[in-house]
Write a structure and sequence with these properties.
Aspartate Aminotransferase, domain 1; seven-stranded mixed sheet; four-stranded mixed sheet; 15 helices; globular
């Protein structure tokens, strides 16, 4: 009989040294860790993370926007333990299993009308690749192989694989790989911060939609799809806009025969106040991309939902007409079970209604932060808040992150934009903590 080895006690400095000598960390300049050391984490509980010295940090950004119901949630833990005893993985080509079927059925019930088919990947960028390929392949299968181009919003972010980068408009991520990607066009963002003085967010969104129409008029014959982050553009500094833009985008894509791809990787699963952001524009896209919070922050999973017309264009005797895209871990049973447990919590705890109360409370209690003379453009959509800080520090984001940790709060600014995307289980006392500590951080940076 083989007995389990007892866990080796974690030595903080040893863990840091080992990590820096063996792990290439994402979205990082590794040399910066010489001045700003990695934080060795050991455990999480609720909205809190704990390091090797038992220092705690309130996870105000849901660990890159994925953790919906807290770290080590007992209900998701229990579901995963149960699934481990039955089936951990089976390939989805030629096989199926209960968790992936059940998840697909439940998503179909929740999603905007008509989105009845689910194709699974492993992360957000994978979902974008799937949607882009599926759109272009649809047009090929329906006799329009010349429709291979895509458009996106200015300052858009859709991932960092090569296909996703082709519709991402963030120079920091694109420029190093420009020789490897197809350059695609962008249209003006309806980001309400860009409106003229006295112009409403709705009027500005409609003005931007006019620019979209002009582009579609000229290029629709070559365009496969328009891809958009509904309501909130995350990497653009949590740019928020009026839902009327979604309505016009849907109308225009229908008029000019172009697919609409809704990238709800960051904004889906209740983050904008409705289960899916598209609901606020009362639209159904041709492709709906989900990831991040779909498993409650537990396991990698993404899904692209689409409707019957798309599905039928691939349904044929000819193998080459099929959508020949795959991931080894497509529809992994453990990930699907975590997603099902996440959906159970939404249903059982009436989460969306509770979130509305929490959002109202935060907006009220945040008045001292909103009134700070260096804070501008305070904005909120659902469980996303953001504002800019006038600061003389060129390295504002790094300083804010470091000061946040000293004040027991995990903040990860985008440039001079500070944002909150806390787990949905955050309490009023923890909201008080977020605002109080963030106010201290901002006051030290101006």
């Amino acid at each position: 009989m083989i007995s389990a080895m007892p866990p080796t006690p974690i030595q903080p400095q040893n863990l840091l040294t080992r990590s820096l000598s063996a792990v290439w960390h994402p979205c990082s300049q590794m040399k910066h860790y010489e001045q700003f050391p990695l934080i060795p984490m050991t455990r999480g509980s609720g909205v809190w993370l704990y390091d090797t010295d038992e220092n705690r940090y309130l996870d105000a950004v849901s660990s890159w926007w994925v953790n919906l119901f807290g770290h080590c949630n007992p209900r998701i833990n229990a579901a995963l333990r149960d699934q481990l005893e039955t089936l951990e993985h089976v390939m989805l080509a030629g096989f199926t299993h209960e968790p992936v079927v059940q998840l697909s059925e439940r998503l179909r019930e929740l999603a905007p009308a008509g989105l009845g088919y689910c194709f699974y990947g492993s992360d957000g960028a994978s979902a974008i690749e799937i949607a882009l390929k599926m759109s272009a392949h649809y047009w090929r299968n329906t006799g329009k192989p010349h429709k291979t181009q895509f458009i996106s919003l200015q300052n858009s972010y859709h991932g960092e694989t090569l296909g996703a980068l082709s519709v991402t408009d963030v120079a920091l991520f694109r420029d190093a790989y420009s020789a490897l990607i197809r350059q695609q066009a962008t249209v003006p963002s309806p980001d309400s911060r860009l409106a003229e003085t006295g112009e409403s967010a709705e009027d500005f969104a409609l003005r931007c939609a006019d620019k979209l129409e002009q582009h579609l008029q000229q290029h629709h014959a070559q365009l496969a799809a328009f891809i958009i982050e509904p309501l909130v553009q995350g990497a653009a500094g949590m740019a928020m806009y009026h839902p009327i833009y979604l309505q016009r985008a849907r109308q225009l894509c229908d008029e000019y025969g172009v697919h609409l791809i809704a990238d709800e990787i960051a904004v889906g699963m209740g983050r904008t106040g409705t289960m899916f952001a598209c609901e606020q524009g009362d639209i159904s896209p041709d492709f709906l991309c989900l990831s991040k919070g779909i498993t409650g922050g537990y396991l990698p999973l993404s899904v692209v939902m689409t409707h019957d017309e798309i599905y039928q264009a691939f349904y044929a005797d000819d193998t080459a007409r099929g959508f020949l895209h795959s991931h080894s871990y497509t529809g992994n049973p453990l990930a699907c079970r975590a997603a099902l447990a996440t959906l159970d919590i939404f249903a059982q705890d009436n989460v969306l209604a509770a979130n509305r109360d929490k959002a109202a409370y935060l907006n009220t209690i945040a008045q001292p932060l909103r009134d700070h003379p260096s804070v501008k453009n305070w904005r909120n959509t659902g469980m996303v808040w953001a504002f800019e800080v006038n600061s003389p520090h060129r390295d504002f984001a790094q300083r804010c992150f470091a000061l946040g940790l000293k004040n027991e709060i995990l903040l990860r600014p985008i440039g001079n934009t500070v944002y909150f995307m806390p787990p949905y289980i955050v309490t009023n006392n923890e909201i008080d903590f977020i605002i109080h500590r963030t106010l201290k951080v901002v006051s030290q940076l101006v």
